[in-house]
Task: inverse folding
C-alpha cells in the first residue's frame, strides 16, 4: 500500500491543479465557445443556433471600432516600445557608470497598476490643466494638445501611456540580449576596426532574433489584453472611440447584459492570442525537449 | 556614432569621443526625465491645494505643501455613494493578495517539483496544458467564472476573488518553480530515494531549503499581478469587497461635483505604493520574474 502510494504520490499531487486547469481554463473556454453559438442575451441559452452572434458582432460599428483600434494601438505600441526599448538598451550598453540607477528609473512603471498609469496620464493630458494649459501659460497661446478628448486622436493617448509603462521592460529584455552576445566576436570585430554602429547592426542585433520574438509576443499579448488602461485613461471614450475588444467584451458582459456578444467577442480575442502564442509556445517546448 | 563603447587606438578623435559621451549621458537623462515626469507630477499635484492646481502650472513645485488631499484620499474620498476613502479597499487588497500569493506559490512549488523531478508519462503534456493557461485572455473565462462563483455562493466576496487568483496564478507559479528545479541534478533526488526518503521528505528537506531565490521571485510576481489586477476585481467584486485598483478607478471616474485632482493623485500613489515599494526593495527579483515569465517557455 505504501509502495503504491509512493509511486503514485507525484501524480496525486499534480492532479488537483491539472483538474483545475482542465475545468477552469479548457472547460470554461469550451463553455464560452458553446454560448457564443447560441442566442443568449441576459441569461445563457444552450441551444446551438450557428454563427449569429459572430454575424451580429461583425455588423456592429462599435466592434468595428474596437478591432480597428486594436490594430492601430497594437501596431504602434509594439513598434514604438520595441524601437525605444532597443535604443535605450544600446545607449545603456555603453559602459554607463550609473547604469543600475538609470535602469531602475526606466523600469519602475512596470511595477505600477495600469489603473495608476491611466490616472496619472489622464491628469497630465487633460487639456484644461495639463500639458496643453502649461505650454500655453509659457506664452504659446495657440498650442493645442487635446488628444484625450478628441475622438480621432484619443487612441494615441493609450499608445503613449502604454509605451511609457512597458518600454523599460523591453529595454531590460534587449539589454540582457545584448549582453549575451559572445564577447570574443565583438572583440575580433573591434580589432578589425569595424565601427561600433556596424558591430551593432551587422553582428549583435541579427543574433538577437529570439529576444525580438519574445519581446513581440509579450507586447502583442499585453496589447490584446489591454483593458484597465483604457478604462482608467479614457473609459473607452469619447463615445466609444477608444474601445478595444477587451472593453467591448466587458461592456457586453456586465453592463449591456448581452452574454452572446460577450462570449463571441471573447472567442475572437482568444483566437487572436492563439494564432500569436501557440506557434511560439510550440517551438519553445520543442526546442526544450530536443 | 562611432566607437562609443570600445575606444580604439586612434587618438585624433579623442575630443569627438568626449562630445559623444556627453551626448550619450544627455540622451539618457532626457529619457530618465520622461519616465520620472508622471511620478513627479503625481507627487507635486497631490501636495497642492485645489486652488493652487487651478492657478498654477502642472510642472511647478507646490508653493504651499498640504497633506489634506492625502487625508481625503485615505479616509474621505467618495467611491460612488460611499465616502470612506481608499482605506477599506486597501485592506481588501491586502486580505486578498496575502492568502492568494501564499497559496498559489505553495501549489506552484509542489507542482514544479513534480514536473521537474518526478517525471512520469504525460507530465510534459500536463505542464504544456498548464502553461498555455497562462496566456489565455481572461475575458474568455469571465462569464462561466461569474456563474460558478454564484453557484458556489462566493460571488462578490474576497474568498471568491482569492479562489480566482489562485486558479489562474498556478500556471505561472508552476512554470517558475519547474524552471528552477529543472536545473537541480536529478541524482540528488535519486540518492535521497535510495536512502529511503519519501516524496514529501525530499521536497521538505532538500528542495525547499534551496528554493529561497525562486520563492522570492514568485511571491513578488504574484503579489504584483494580484495587487495590480483590475479585470477580476471589477468583474467579481461588489460594493464593499472591491480591491484598491477598482476603488481608485471609482474615485477618479465617478466623483460628482468638483474634480479633486490632488485627491486623485494621492489615491493613485497610495494604490501604487505597495508594488512600488517591492520594486525598490527587491527590484532584482522583480525583473527576474518578468523576464522568466516572458522569455522561458
Result:
Amino acid at each position: 500500500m505504501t509502495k503504491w502510494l509512493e509511486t503514485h504520490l507525484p501524480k496525486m499531487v499534480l492532479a488537483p491543479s491539472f483538474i483545475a486547469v482542465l475545468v477552469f481554463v479548457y472547460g470554461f473556454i469550451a463553455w464560452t465557445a458553446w454560448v457564443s453559438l447560441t442566442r443568449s442575451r441576459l441569461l445563457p441559452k444552450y441551444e446551438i443556433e450557428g454563427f449569429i452572434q459572430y454575424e451580429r458582432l461583425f455588423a456592429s460599428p462599435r466592434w468595428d471600432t474596437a478591432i480597428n483600434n486594436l490594430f492601430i494601438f497594437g501596431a504602434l505600441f509594439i513598434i514604438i516600445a520595441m524601437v525605444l526599448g532597443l535604443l535605450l538598451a544600446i545607449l545603456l550598453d555603453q559602459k554607463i557608470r550609473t547604469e543600475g540607477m538609470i535602469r531602475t528609473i526606466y523600469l519602475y512603471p512596470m511595477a505600477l497598476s495600469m489603473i495608476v498609469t491611466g490616472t496619472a496620464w489622464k491628469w497630465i493630458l487633460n487639456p484644461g490643466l495639463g500639458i496643453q494649459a502649461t505650454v500655453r501659460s509659457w506664452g504659446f497661446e495657440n498650442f493645442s494638445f487635446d488628444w484625450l478628448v478628441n475622438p480621432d486622436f484619443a487612441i494615441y493617448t493609450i499608445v503613449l501611456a502604454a509605451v511609457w509603462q512597458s518600454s523599460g521592460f523591453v529595454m531590460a529584455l534587449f539589454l540582457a540580449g545584448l549582453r549575451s552576445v559572445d564577447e570574443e566576436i565583438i572583440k575580433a570585430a573591434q580589432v578589425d576596426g569595424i565601427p561600433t554602429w556596424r558591430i551593432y547592426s551587422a553582428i549583435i542585433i541579427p543574433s538577437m532574433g529570439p529576444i525580438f520574438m519574445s519581446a513581440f509576443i509579450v507586447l502583442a499579448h499585453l496589447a490584446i489584453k489591454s483593458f484597465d488602461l483604457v478604462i482608467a485613461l479614457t473609459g473607452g471614450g469619447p463615445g466609444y472611440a477608444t474601445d478595444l475588444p477587451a472593453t467591448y467584451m466587458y461592456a457586453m458582459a456586465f453592463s449591456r447584459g448581452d452574454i452572446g456578444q460577450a462570449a463571441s467577442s471573447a472567442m475572437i480575442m482568444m483566437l487572436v492570442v492563439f494564432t500569436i502564442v501557440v506557434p511560439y509556445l510550440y517551438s519553445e517546448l520543442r526546442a526544450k525537449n530536443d | 556614432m562611432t566607437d562609443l563603447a570600445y575606444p580604439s587606438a586612434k587618438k585624433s578623435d579623442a575630443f569627438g569621443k568626449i562630445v559623444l559621451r556627453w551626448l550619450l549621458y544627455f540622451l539618457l537623462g532626457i529619457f530618465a526625465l520622461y519616465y520620472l515626469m508622471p511620478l513627479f507630477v503625481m507627487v507635486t499635484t497631490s501636495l497642492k491645494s485645489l486652488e493652487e492646481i487651478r492657478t498654477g502650472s502642472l510642472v511647478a513645485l507646490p508653493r504651499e505643501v498640504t497633506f489634506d488631499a492625502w487625508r481625503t484620499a485615505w479616509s474621505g474620498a467618495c467611491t460612488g455613494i460611499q465616502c470612506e476613502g481608499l482605506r477599506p479597499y486597501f485592506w481588501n487588497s491586502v486580505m486578498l493578495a496575502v492568502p492568494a500569493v501564499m497559496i498559489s506559490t505553495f501549489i506552484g512549488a509542489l507542482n514544479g517539483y513534480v514536473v521537474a523531478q518526478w517525471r512520469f508519462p504525460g507530465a510534459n503534456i500536463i505542464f504544456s496544458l498548464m502553461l498555455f493557461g497562462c496566456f489565455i485572455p481572461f475575458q474568455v473565462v469571465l462569464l462561466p467564472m461569474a456563474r460558478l462563483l454564484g453557484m458556489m455562493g462566493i460571488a462578490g466576496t474576497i474568498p471568491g476573488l482569492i479562489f480566482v487568483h489562485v486558479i489562474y496564478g498556478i500556471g505561472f507559479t508552476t512554470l517558475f518553480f519547474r524552471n528552477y528545479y529543472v536545473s537541480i541534478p536529478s541524482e540528488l533526488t535519486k540518492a535521497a530515494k535510495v536512502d529511503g526518503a519519501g516524496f514529501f521528505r525530499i521536497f521538505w528537506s532538500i528542495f525547499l531549503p534551496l528554493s529561497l531565490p525562486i520563492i522570492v521571485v514568485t511571491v513578488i510576481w504574484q503579489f504584483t499581478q494580484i495587487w495590480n489586477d483590475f479585470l477580476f476585481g471589477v468583474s467579481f467584486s461588489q460594493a464593499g469587497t472591491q480591491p484598491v485598483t477598482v476603488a481608485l478607478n471609482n474615485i477618479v471616474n465617478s466623483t460628482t461635483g468638483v474634480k479633486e485632482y490632488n485627491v486623485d493623485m494621492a489615491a493613485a500613489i497610495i494604490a501604487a505604493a505597495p508594488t512600488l515599494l517591492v520594486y525598490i526593495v527587491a527590484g532584482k527579483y522583480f525583473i527576474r520574474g518578468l523576464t522568466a515569465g516572458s522569455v522561458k517557455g
Q: What stands out?
A: Chain B touches chain A through 99 residues (CB under 8 Å). Chain B has a mean pLDDT of 86. Chain B has two domains: 2-75, 87-291. Chain B has 13 helices and no strands.
